[in-house]
Amino acid sequence: MPEGKRKVIELNQELYPDFRFKIWSKANITREAFPLSYELLMNIYSCNKFTRYSKMATMADVMRHELVYNEGGIYMDTSMLLFNRAMYKWLSYKAFLST
User: Fold this and answer.
1) Is 69 helix (H, G, I), strand (E, B) or coil?
2) What is the DSSP letter of 21?
3) 3-class DSSP state of 49
4) Which of 2, 6, 37, 68 has the smallest set of CB atoms within 10 Å of its CB?
């Protein structure tokens, strides 16, 4: 993982020390971890067609939906640096979305 992304994760962990942070990568894509979308993820990964869409971004989209569905919690990209402790307030809501 690039040093810049590692630093963002460390800063977020300092802001939310009681949160559990999980880093997902291709190495984590198993049939057990992604029972609903494993075949789709493998098909996307093996696709060699030229496309204007990033296959890694597409895989991340599929993974994030199944992860939140199966595990709950909050999904964040490793480039998202938090500036305040607003997530504690968000957790009091039944649901929230961000784009």
Assistant:
1) helix
2) P
3) coil
4) 2
